[in-house]
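seq:
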Amino acid sequence: MGQASTNCPPPVSIPASHLLGAAGQTTTLSGSNSYVGTYTLTPGTVFYVNGRATRVSFLGTPTRRVTGSTITVGDNATLVLDNATLTASGSTTTCPMWYGVVVKGTGPAPGNTNRLVVQNNSAISHALCAISLENSSTGGTTDYLIDQSAFAQNITHVRDVASHTTGTTSFITNCTFDSDPSQTRFPYESAGGSEYYACQALYLTPLGDFGSHAVEVTGNTINNAVYGIVNNEVDRAGVMIRNNSLGKIFQTAIWTVNNDTNSGTTISVTSGNQVALNGILPANTDQIDPTATRYGIVREGRLAIPNSFENNSVTGNIASAFSNYRQIGLSISGPTSASGNLLQNMDEGISATELDGSYLVDNRTAGCGSGFVVKSYINGQSQVNLLSCNTFAQNNGGATGNTAGIVVQQDATINDIGSFGSPAANQFDGLTYGIVNDNTMSQVTYYQTTSSQEAVTWTGGGTVSLLTVGGINLKNYCLGQGAANGNGVNTFRGAAPSPGYLAALMDAVRRQLVPAARRRSYLHEVTNYYAGTQQLPALEAWWATLAGPNDDAYRTLGRYLLSAYDEQHAPAAAQRILAGLQPQALLDAELAAQLQLRTVLRHLPQTAPVLSPADSTTLRTLAWSGLSVAEQATRWLRYYHPLIPVPAPAPATPQPAAAVARKKPLTESGATLGAAYPNPAQTEVTIACQLARAEQTAELRFTNLLTGQVLRVVPVAGTGTARSQRVPLAGLPAGQYAYQLVVEGQPAAAPQKLFVNP
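struct:
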């Protein structure tokens, strides 16, 4: 593949029963044509499609010419590849190539739905574009499943520009996408208009107004691509990109933008991916500038909704002999939540512009010339909400020469890093400089801890003001900031509390020896310890002793244990908890409703959209109950019964003027409430606050914006005026919440919004 010669050997002889299509023709599988309904290619059979590729000159420009066939999945049709193979006839020669499978409605009737299933060790190879999902001119939609299959020697493996069925997620999972690097030596092939196939493994820009994401890309392996996974068009639905392995990427491994500006709620999550940059190029190519910057993960966009990048690993090779280009691990522009990422052996670990509203916590850069680089832009100062508890380290085999943790480029600015109440607590290990400020007109104010791991040195034309914050208990400090991967200055992170201390907390909760707010705080601390150390049986044993002495704590902890055992797929343990909670449900409407919803969700069908009458009745009752589960029940009702009337959000309850007058104005409380991190959140959230006096007690209240119900009250632990509280979200339904700081029984700061994702 990819030979410079225009002469290719003739195709091999193929049995007629295995030959699909003729040169330049289209075979259409369609409900309105020769194939009705679902068409399944015979399992275990290799089907050959006519096609060859040559390299020709058009007006002096090298061009790829494909003389091959197309398989089109037409109106209301489903194509299934079940342990079947599609490849070009002549695939044993040096120049095989056909056009690929096109999924697109072509008939006059609107509302067509086209489906594609590729599964069970199927394979598609030697295609210009193996699968192209295109938008139908008749208003149809597309959904697909691509699972446990192999794609080889295709220029583009999957190209998705189609409209998707709202509420239906398509999947690309557990597949292998591999190509010969020499394919990059062929020039682009025009796909019509300004669109080109350019050695992109997965080009996914689906259409659709989705509340979450239209496509999930999970557990795949991608090798030898100019671009790995691309979701780079605005106003398109989001893509979930998780736990993929991308190797020998020549330009950009994962490229995303803020998506779906129509709905305003799409969140694209990129997590757990392993990226290896820059395989050795076979030669200078038509697609790749040998001196162009290479990127591991790129995020672009200015929407206020932060995309999330969690626990990704990007590895470069700047110490190698062929590093004639720059390499950047994570390039971000716009509000971004980045945590737990490992970026190593590159020129820049994280490169950032326009950071308003970003949270950068618990990341590690190692062997990079610069760990975190703030670049200049024209819209003003970069407002990083949180740049805390990261580790910037040097190691063998990485960058040589001067190395730095945080770099502010010339004409770039950044707001304060940390504060007196919440120091940055980043760790600087083996670097020449902790901070470089190259902007001669700006001052970087950095709040550091007393830890020797944060001993900051700085240089540059600008100035750096280092302010040391004392009185901070560094034990588990970064864990409280959301750093769960060992980053930051926590020398003693993970040191267990003494058995006597835990026993005292547990006894105080069981015997109700302290006020209710303090009991909730103790319950939270004990639960966090045993859950964090994977000691759920011990936590369950204590839970059993709470029935009777403290039924409120018994119900709260029981709900947590039930959720934890469900997530661990431990049915016997979950049944024990359920048996203990059911008598309590007779006395607690909230608990009864949560158990009812759990039962319904465990009954939900996995494939067919059919709901049993009993579960339907339960969902209707819960949706109109006004309890904490109402919003979640309403969402499932809409899914199974789109036309059923559902409850509107509960109106705010008016208060008598006299009652309002007695409340202290929020502006006079002297307290401030920080932004939640991360936001949106899934499992837990961290919220900082500032109180007027150190001796004050405070709590955080979480209110469901749909029902108006207060669903969670969490005491704010700690001493002093500046505090930070971690809040577990287990058992809290997905949706929109308001969280508010309450000091000594009175609201003390304006509420803020929190999004909880499922």
